[in-house]
Amino acid sequence: MLRIAVPNKGAISGPAMAMLHEAGYRQRKESKELVLVDPANEVEFFYLRPRDIAIYVSSGKLDIGITGRDLLLDSGADAEEILQLGFARSTFRYATKPGTAAGPKDFAGMTIATSYEGIVAKHLADEGVDASVVHLDGAVETAIELGVAQIIADVVETGTSMRNAGLEIIGEPIMRSEAVVIRRTGAPADDPKVQQFLRRLQGVLVARSYVMMDYDCRVEHLERAVALTPGLESPTISPLHHEGWVAVRSMVAAKEAQRIMDDLYELGARAILTTAIHACRL
Question: Residue of 57, 128, 140, 272 with fewest CB within 10 Å of its CB?
Answer without folding.
Answer: 128
